[in-house]
Amino acid sequence: MAELHSRLSPIRFGRAICGDLSAAERREWWLANGRGGYAGGTIAQSLTRRYHGLLVAPVDPPLGRVLVLTKADATLIADGAAQPLFTNHWASGAVEPAGYLALESFHLDGTIPIWRFAIGGRIVEERIWLEPGADTVHVAWRLSGAPGGPTPRLVVTLLANGRDHHGDTWPQGFSPDVAVDGSRLRMTVPNRFVLEIAAAGGMIASRNEWYRDFDLPVERERGLGAQDSHLHIGDLDLPLAPGKWVGFAASLTPQTAPDIDAALRRRRAHDRAVVKRAAAADTVFATAPGWVMRLVLATEAFIIARPLPDLPQGQSVIAGYPWFGDWGRDTMISLPGLCLATGRFDTARLILETFGRFVDRGMLPNVFPGAGATPDYNTVDASLWFIEAWRAYLDATGDRAALHRAFPVLTDIIDWHFKGTRYGIAVDPADGLLRAGEPGVQLTWMDARVGDRVVTPRIGKPVEINALWYNALVALAAMAEQVGAPADFYRSAAAKARQGFARFVRPRGRGLYDVLDGPEGYDQSLRPNQVFAVSLPASPLDAAAQRAVLECCGEALVTSYGLRSLAASDPAYRGNCRGTVDERDGAYHQGTVWAWLLGPWAMAYYQVYGDATAAQRFLRPIGDHLCDAGLGQVSEIFDGDPPHTPRGCPAQAWSVACVLEAWWRLARASASAGQSAALTRY
Fold it and tell me: Domain 282-681 maps to which CATH number in 3.40.1190.20, 1.50.10.10, 3.40.50.1400, 3.90.550.10?
């Protein structure tokens, strides 16, 4: 594991953070299993979200996720005294026990969170990890520095549940059958699931009592229900011997072996393989900074299995943990960074082919359907990002066989946009631009809604949609040539769209309008959407217009962690994204900083100025953020006002992917420039 450690920037905290409850709770660990299941919590081992737990599993596939096992609260029994190694918040306001005060350090070993508790002359180390590809969590403890005397023990309180991970617990409606046989406990929820807990190194005794009134301060801050209850189903009694692992495996898979050493080796090997694969795929990772390699490791959390009847090996992308599922737009935007930069070329193809099964009337679903559900197609940009993802995949792999299979679907998308499809999405024959939108429907990535009010409706011709449209037409012309199909139609349509795109250019070098031909005319809001007219591979702008975009956005929108969604000078600007659901949704795209936009910004900067090293500098602050909020991950959003507090999902796919993709492409550009310079000198 030393090799992996040497490649990753350290994420480690001592008593200054661990012993400060607010600082320890702000920092969260998140794990994923490749099936949509996850685990997460705080450094302090307290619950602050309804989503925190040791095992949240897709009991109702593909993504009907249920909180199955909440906590494993360990208490050290030694020298006649009991020392809790956990922390709980209660609705009364009490924090009891305050086990975080015994926490000497916390760090990540790859993706594995590790706590070291110092009690007298003893150190107790705890680790938690998920089994790759299985709904199984492992929790283990190890003693070191033990003085003489009676053998110390751990008594571990097991708290379980059976609610939807979004929901509230209803104790009266949850009465599982709990049975214990020595070192194994089985909790059966009839017609739902069976949780088996197998101890390694100790015994289990059954219990049946509710622990009520856990307080969830983050949920209160988000304007949601802030209390929960969990069922105490059993206690583990684990004798501790120096240097020997004890613990348990909890799983929805019957007869899972509680072999801690073997399971730990598997998890470490899995993490190591992620980093090695990226390094083998591209030599730029050989000298990549540690924070970049942390992003490489972070990508693994978002790739999930999505089997379909005619594509059992189908795959998809979780948009963010803990509460998002797999979305068409987010998946296609994330795909190059998650898969192409990291050498997962087969995964990229499978994701594209999985989503290709659901293209309908030229549109990709915004929300991927669950079992038996109807896809929701309320997005104008997902299908255009789908084409860009295919372009990027083909550029990386040259996979013409896959292109031949996909080409009819891709051309069908273009055809439907000319014919007209849902929600008023169609090409305007007057200027070749794409119009979209109907009252009450949100179609672009700026899709927040408060009740019946769409916060940023953007009906008309949005700037990034038409940048994507032009880019798609150019890409289809190139793809047509590769498969031996006529390309003139796409070239002609691209030329007309480029000419029409000139209407977005504002006078006196002030960048681009955000929306043309809307109900109220031209939208002059200064938003980051115009950056895509520069960052995408095919830009419809000349050099002067590209530079103007960068100048106006750089002055008003760029922050250390991403781009503001609206300039602070706008009367509608909201500098903080917090409060009730309605308050947060109202601020979501009205000034909130979005991390995923940092990647396109860096690429746009390189496009204009040609300096890859300078462009990469915009990405570096993300390395600092990896030690905040979701550890080793990148948050979904940040406040528009300094200090840009992280908000939203603590682990967001496109936040990780777009930053990593930009770094990768800029590193390749820098290496290519260096080779060219060396050849010139020679």
Answer: 1.50.10.10
